[in-house]
Amino acid sequence: MSKKTQQIAVPLISVLLGILLGAVVMAIFGYDAIWGYESLFKTAFGSLRSLGEISRAMGPLILIGLGFAVASRAGFFNVGLPGQALAGWILAGWFALSFPDLPRPLMLLATVVIAAVAGGIVGAIPGILRAYLGTSEVIVTIMMNYIVLFVGNALIHSFPESVMQSVDSSKRVSANAIYQTEWLRSLTSNSRMNIGIFFALIAVVVIWYLLKKTTLGFEIRAVGLNPNASEYAGMSSKRTIIVSMIISGALAGLGGVVEGLGTYQNVFVQGSSLSVGFNGMAVSLLAANSPIGILFAAFLFAVLSVGAPGMNVAQIPTELVNIVTASIIFFVSAHYLIERMTGMTIFDFLKNRRQEAKKVKEGN
Which pTM value belongs to this model? Predict the structure, then answer.
């Protein structure tokens, strides 16, 4: 089986195994798995509003997934995506609340730029520390999530009372800053679909072109494969590390503002790191860090998210959808773990095991 075929087969097989394992868990606890999945997919695809909600959920997942993909191609595991997304959301939200009368085109452009810059700065910090001090980007980005979370909550509490609805939540931003549009609402039966999905689709094309067709993309992939060889070839691995983390953080910041101003339309205190940040990482892992694959992986996650409440019809807890999602990521990770430990893909590993078993059988 060719490498390209394997890259497509692994996610598909992982999805099927995840759904199967979810069905087994439902059966163990006495639930009707067929009825549960039927209710899930009916809810997800049963109305125009549900389709709009799927598109709404896909936007931030795609953007954050692309951010993780860029960092991964450079050889880094950016766990700081939730913090980078939250930074973009809070600062863009603060700007929208502070200047509510800006014309809509200028407001949209400003919030997008501010979110990208905020996420990029937060992403640059672990990149600089890794490039010049050799620190672990995993530890630094995890700590950055907490720093952004608590600093962000303190910043929200310092907002003027005139823009606050309660102690922990701001008022809605002005109509000029909301990413939802009347046209999209009427098209999808009053769903929360917003222009964030179009930002995401544009980003897919841009990141695919960046990684496949540009010098910077080649350098990112080269540094990810072997930073020492890249240095020997004349590339600056330090510069590439920092640039890739800035791009990663900027995309996460965009995902954060799409989630915030597209879905919630305000800013509020968070009790923990943004779950959409971790879900974006899972989307990228499922897609093997492929920009095109991220589009389809985000669609799957959005379907599961939107359809989950429908499982209540079958009297099945919606938390079982999380088991399906986790199982899919587990099976994808198992493939990479085997490849990392043995130097072979899971397909090569199974092929070798069959050949060994055949030799033993012939020997006997």
Answer: 0.90
